[in-house]
Amino acid sequence: MLSSQIRAVFHRTLLTISLLFASHAVVGSDKLTIGITLHPYYSYVATIVQDRATILPLVDAGFNPHNYQPQPGDLLRLQQMDVLVVNGIGHDDYAMKVLAAAQRSDLQVIYANQQVPLLAAMGASVGDGAKNPHTFVGIATSIQKVYTIAQALAQLDPDNGEFYLANARQFARQMRQMKQAAMQQLIDANVQALKVATTHNAYNYLLQEFGIEVSAVIEPAHGVEPSASQLQDTINKIRQSGINVLFYELEMPNRFVDTIERETGVKLYRFSHMTHGPFTADKVIKEMQDNTQTLVQAIHYANQMSEQAQ
């Protein structure tokens, strides 16, 4: 929750911005200015609109969405937006705080996950009813969100509506072809040979599309490192349940991963979380491709280990 001091700065900044907008005649662009909160949403929106709208991240690349605290300058960006696309179920909580402080009733907000079937969050300290917010690390979920975003933008910008919807369909085709190519590589593999633990509660949406369940999540809650006792409990569970692969995050160091590998003998594979690096239009396609190929490798490894054990 924002402190009263930060909130006061927010409101002073908002007042200044409002006065500037009121006192200067500005010739606006015909293009929509579309705000986004996370890297995957930049890719989604860029794929949909291409050069027919302006995309404005609420915060510059390089921030950590797990612990970012809103800054007064975020309001300036929000004031430039016609519409804001949000995850809205966690992971971009900072944006909800900025929205609340701005009090912009005219701003259109697209909740990209409104039609996505959500999975329960996993972790030793996760509360009852908590949902997994990492729908952007999934193929079917990404397709659904791109359709939701494209349909909403088509209503806001009907002159370009058919263009947006056609691009959404093309994105869906690319993603489905990617999944089909991965499945073709697994025709002779036993997917159930893969027994999975993950450091982060981020990969369930992708894994479930290949019929794989996560047996253990190392972090007790989103972005929280395990205590020594929680880590030992996880090590014991991995040993007892036959988990053979641990997926961890490509761009974030996990101090406990080496300990788990040493104590259990699990094979380590890295997945992209898709929330690091520069904002690029092709980030989701490229990094989802990398993730699916990593998954194929892990399944083949698990099959090899299973055959050797027989």
Automatic annotation (TrEMBL):
One of its GO terms (biological process) is metal ion transport. The keyword Coiled coil does not apply. GO terms for molecular function: metal ion binding. Coiled coil: none annotated. It holds the Pfam family ZnuA. Keywords: Signal, Transport. Belongs to the bacterial solute-binding protein 9 family. PANTHER family: HIGH-AFFINITY ZINC UPTAKE SYSTEM PROTEIN ZNUA, HIGH-AFFINITY ZINC UPTAKE SYSTEM PROTEIN ZNUA-RELATED. This is Zinc ABC transporter substrate-binding protein. It comes from bacterium 19PA01SH03.
